[in-house]
Amino acid sequence: MCNENQENYNTYQYTGKSPIKAWTKGVPFEEQAQQQLRNIASMPMVHSHIAVMPDVHFGLGATIGSVIPSVDAVIPAAVGVDIGCGMVAAKTSLKAKDLPDNLKGIRSAFEAAVPHGRTPRSRNDKGAWQEIPELVATEWLSLKARFERICEKHPAIKQTNNINHLGTMGTGNHFLELCLDEYDSVWVMLHSGSRGVGNRIGNYFIALAKKEMERHQINLPDKDLAYLKEGSEYFDDYVEAVEWAQDYAKKNREIMMTNAINAMRKVLGVNFSAAEMAVNCHHNYISREHHFGKDCYVTRKGAVRAQEGEMGIIPGSMGARSFIVRGLGNPESFNSCSHGAGRVMSRTKAKKVYNIADQVEATKGVECRKDAAVIDEIPHAYKDIEKVMEAQKDLVEVVHTLKQIVCVKG
């Protein structure tokens, strides 16, 4: 049941379930995602209501584009396995006129500086460091001791690509871009998370939560909504591991940004600055916050925190605009906004519907890959970013509008 109101969101109220407040006016909101959210809304630990962002779509474990406040428990699958995935963007002192007409050199420099993609079943995975660079080794030291403490309790997490993935991008919708804003200022922007080690942490604790549900014979509307209750055997360990993975993801993006900017300086032969405005934000994570009279854990899966005055990034897709935004601190959304445009089509379907010619046309003017392997990232597979931004005009204000001119995909 949907109640229309004068607010910028719709409220869905179901008997015996927490309300769902959805900023989805003017954008697709498929039934599969709605059912997934109804399942989450029936969980006893949900506090006040669930907030749904305009980029919402069905996800593995829990709905992407959801904000779930919980008291005394967390749902590991609601965070997912790409823990701490997020964005970083830095404005440089360069202008469009400072760039060469042919941008292939910058794209090649980015590709050489930042490992990306993946070589399956190979010890020489192109998406991992084969020899650890000095910067990576130094930055790993700030993460190492905490990681080893976590692994003492949970050895299964240790045998992962941890240091080998620090400063690397990954696959899928992760990217590194060179963009121009409305004043022709040059920005570097990228998207990535906690890589292989975050994936292992996520899957490991999701499995433990499911075992907890079986042990206590707790029936769930969806087995992926298995939760860890505060005070239980694994709760503190999970929160500690998630917070570590979030720090790893933030550090991962910082290293990539440093390497990408240094690669640009080398190829351009210019020692430009790149710290006029830097934004580094998660969109798959847990945060301890206070909302509607209670301390709670806020799980944002495909959502960015947008407290009043807080800066964030909402990317479009290959060929679409992206936005640097400032939060308006809307309490009904738990101070949140969308993390991007959101898919309207699965990767499998996109590859069936579109071809290379479609990808070439959709990414016209962007120096990027235009082959069959990236058709699943074609802009047509995503929602209209302009409509997504309109649907959340009470959550954020646009500070800068970016258009990519170089895009590196994993």
Give a quick set of tags describing it.
8-stranded mixed β-sheet; alpha+beta; 7-stranded mixed β-sheet; 9 helices; 30% helix; globular; tRNA-splicing ligase RtcB; 410 residues
Verbal overview:
The protein is α+β, with helices and mostly antiparallel strands. It contains nine helices and 19 strands. It has one domain (2-344, 382-409): Alpha-Beta Complex (tRNA-splicing ligase RtcB). The strands form four sheets. Strands 7, 8, 9, 11, 15, 16, 18 and 19 form an eight-stranded mixed beta sheet that branches. It has a seven-stranded mixed beta sheet with strand order 1-2-3-4-5-13-12, sandwiched between helices. It has a two-stranded antiparallel sheet with strand order 6-10.
Q: What's the CATH topology name? A: tRNA-splicing ligase RtcB
What is the count of distinct domains?
1
Structural class: alpha+beta
How many strand elements?
Answer: 19
Alpha carbon gap, first and last residue: 41 Å
**Which percent range describes the beta-strand content?**
25-35%
Percentage of helical residues?
25-40%
- The CATH homologous superfamily is called tRNA-splicing ligase RtcB
Following the backbone from N to C, one meets helices and strands in this order, namely: EEEHEEEHEHHEEHEHEEEEEEEHHEHE
* Main sheet record: 8 strands, mixed
Output the CATH class name.
Alpha Beta
Name the shape in a single word.
globular
CATH architecture: Alpha-Beta Complex
